[in-house]
Design brief:
Length: 536
């Protein structure tokens, strides 16, 4: 048996040896350059600059409460020696009358006060003519980003493709991406001079360059939380982007209105989404090894902006905060008041009464016939004298609660300012359109709502069946007078059948036609009538 030398034992236990071992083990940790970065983010804001009551949660959301939340987090992060970013993943526009009437001026100017660092362009930034977008860029004191939108005539970027922010030696690259489906999601004339380039190819070309310039690469996207969109251009979503483009540390996304309660990890990429309407602020805390240009740790949570939950007791209802409650920032409250006053008088005027709740929730109106969709399409026929009305479900944006109906309620239902378009269509052309509509999956904005005809959507065959117009089987040779909105008439939502047909734009705004229809009726209590039958 070999005996251990006493000298060896003393060496191993000597203080000098232990110190040397400690230095060798701990040196890499001590020498590593570590930074912390907190990303605060929102998406699909859709004009909700003031507090509102989503689904019975009173006085929720709003940029005044969000300002308090954001600044509390900033104070905490700065005290700990970290850095913060505040980002928007697009669709600031469209959804609330007070904002829509003012071209979202209150939203962009209040976002300045909150200190947003950047925003990517969403498809709803193109719902109005280009002049409006240019005006919004002037209002905003932060950059609009998109690396895959270029001008057809020159190939120049419409807005900045990316920015690099520097925090005490930490370089953070942020680049924007916008869904390739935008040309069919907005009025085509508004983007006819633009090319929405392939998302994956754009990112593959840009990310390696950004990796050379930055410690962290963030994709600020308006693509949706999925592999592919499943309609129109079948545009790539955030999951596909993460899988196919290496080198992206974080995807801050929007478009699909998903509220992710934890970061989705795909390979080495984190994906976060913050829901909709600025009801939440997403908070992603990163630990970054700047020597290795690598995110080494993260935590993520959704912070509700004064959302409430209902508690019932003794047949009474009470509300409590879903998390922390935030006192509204007085500076923001004062800044928004002139905008609210400017719109209130017109919007608050009563125009009629709903005898029942009128269903326009996106989960319903993009998947089945609803009573509100029937009123919308009936109003289109009433205004124009058309036999048939065609309306995309995605163009109906809100419920109308039972009780008094105001102009504000109507504008929430139809906020886009679309005009009614008349087109003559043969029965064969209508069948072609219906067969396309039969391929639309539930949840897609292209889901079709109608008046003047009934039909069966057979999901087994993916075809339209049992089509009747005015109670009679459709005649493929007969010509019918059809009304739709100018968005669909230009081929929006993939309705290519309509695109090349001769049309007359009546100039009638869809929301005004709906308002007139409700005002004429006085009281409305529409029902689901069996205009659409779905066979699974």
């Amino acid at each position: 048996m070999m005996r251990r030398s006493k000298h060896t034992f003393h060496v191993l236990c000597s203080p000098i040896f232990l110190v040397l071992v400690s230095v060798l083990v701990l040196a890499p940790l001590a020498w590593a350059e570590v930074s912390t970065l907190t990303i605060l983010h929102t998406n699909d804001h859709h004009g909700h600059f003031a507090k509102f009551s989503p689904y019975g949660s009173p006085d929720s959301g709003g940029l005044a409460a969000q300002s308090t939340l954001v600044n509390i987090v900033r104070a905490e992060v700065e005290e700990a020696g970290g850095h913060t970013l505040l980002l928007s993943a697009g669709d600031v526009n469209m959804g609330v009358p007070e904002s829509d009437m003012l071209d979202a001026e209150p939203d962009f100017k209040l976002m300045n006060l909150l200190g947003y660092d950047a925003m990517t362009l969403g498809n709803h930034e193109f719902d109005k003519p280009r002049e409006v977008l240019l005006k919004q860029q002037e209002w905003a004191e932060f950059p609009f980003l998109s690396a895959n939108i270029v001008k057809k005539d020159s190939g120049e970027y419409l807005v900045e493709p990316y920015i690099i922010k520097e925090f005490d030696g930490l370089n953070v690259a942020i680049f924007g991406l916008t869904t390739e489906e935008s040309p069919i999601l907005v009025t085509p004339d508004n983007v006819k001079d633009l090319e929405f380039k392939d998302i994956i190819e754009t990112a593959k070309a840009l990310v390696p360059k950004l990796r050379e310039e930055a410690d962290v690469v963030i994709a600020l996207t308006h693509l949706g939380f999925f592999e592919n969109s499943g309609g129109g251009y079948n545009s790539a979503g955030d999951i596909k982007l993460a899988k196919e483009v290496p080198g992206i540390d974080v995807i801050v996304g929007g478009h699909s209105h998903d509220a992710l309660t934890e970061a989705e990890v795909v390979g080495n990429t984190l994906i976060v989404h913050g829901g909709e309407w600025s009801k939440f602020v997403g908070r992603l805390d990163l630990t970054i090894d700047t020597e290795a240009n690598k995110v080494t740790d993260h935590t993520y949570r959704l912070l509700p902006v004064n959302l409430k939950k209902r508690v019932s007791y003794n047949d009474k209802e009470y509300f409590m905060y879903s998390g922390v409650g935030y006192v509204e920032d007085k500076v923001i409250v004062e800044a928004m008041q002139p905008y609210l006053s400017q719109a209130d008088e017109l919007l608050s005027q009563p125009i009629g009464e709903a005898l029942v709740k009128l269903d326009g929730d996106r989960k319903l109106v993009r998947a089945q016939e609803t009573n509100l969709a029937n009123i919308v399409t009936d109003s289109m026929c009433a205004k124009t004298g058309a036999e048939i009305a065609l309306q995309n479900g995605g163009g109906i944006r809100s419920d109308i609660e039972q009780g008094t109906i105001t102009y504000r309620d109507v504008l929430k239902v139809q906020p886009f300012g679309n005009t009614l378009v008349l087109v003559d269509m043969t029965g064969a052309q209508i069948m072609e359109l219906l067969n396309y509509a039969a391929t639309i999956q539930p949840g897609n904005g292209a889901f079709l709502q109608v008046a003047g005809l009934t039909w069966t959507l057979n999901r087994k065959t993916g075809a339209a069946e049992n089509v009747q117009v005015g109670g009679q089987p459709i005649n493929l040779e007969q010509t019918y007078k059809v009304v739709t909105n100018n968005f669909m008439g230009a081929g929006g939502d993939g309705y290519a059948t309509l695109k090349d047909l001769p049309k007359i734009d009546t100039g009638y705004v869809d929301a005004d036609s709906l308002r007139e229809y409700i005002a004429e009726k006085g009281k409305v209590g529409a029902a689901v009538e069996g205009r659409l039958t779905i066979v699974e």
